[in-house]
Structure formats: structure tokens, C-alpha cells
Task: inverse folding
């Protein structure tokens, strides 16, 4: 039996792979592992939509090298 933490991590991993902002999840299932711990820490700490909404674009720009969101609507990068 899995603990609640494992289920949460697996659920978040699934969401990140479904969102797949860089388009590689079909080939690389662990591409977004680097985002799990920081996201879980924020969520467990009570982070709201605004804080998560700041983290995700920053991570996509700095870690994954996506274009700066200053030139794009942040909404287009954030999951629904």
C-alpha cells in the first residue's frame, strides 16, 4: 500500500506529464522530476495559485530554457 505522500507525488508527476509544457513526456517520463519537490513544498506550505503561478513560468524559463514569459501571456503556459 502506498502512503499519501507517494500518491500525491505520483498525482503531481502525472499532471506535469499531462501538461508537458516542453512536449517530451511521451519519450521521457521523468523530465519534470526536478519540479516535484519544489512544487510539493510550496503546496504543502499552503501556496496559492499566485505563488504557483510565479514558480512555474520561472522554472520553465530558467531551468528548461523556454522563452521569457514577459513576451507571452502567462496564462498560455499555465495548466487549466
Result:
Amino acid at each position: 500500500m502506498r502512503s499519501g505522500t507517494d500518491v500525491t507525488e505520483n498525482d503531481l508527476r502525472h499532471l506535469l506529464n499531462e501538461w508537458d509544457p516542453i512536449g517530451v513526456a511521451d519519450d521521457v517520463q521523468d523530465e519534470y522530476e526536478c519540479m516535484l519537490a519544489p512544487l510539493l513544498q510550496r503546496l504543502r506550505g499552503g501556496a496559492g495559485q499566485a505563488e504557483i503561478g510565479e514558480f512555474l513560468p520561472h522554472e520553465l524559463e530558467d531551468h528548461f530554457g523556454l522563452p521569457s514569459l514577459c513576451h507571452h501571456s502567462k496564462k498560455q503556459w499555465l495548466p487549466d
Summary: The radius of gyration is 13 Å. The chain has a mean pLDDT of 81. Residues 1 and 22 are 33 Å apart (CA to CA).
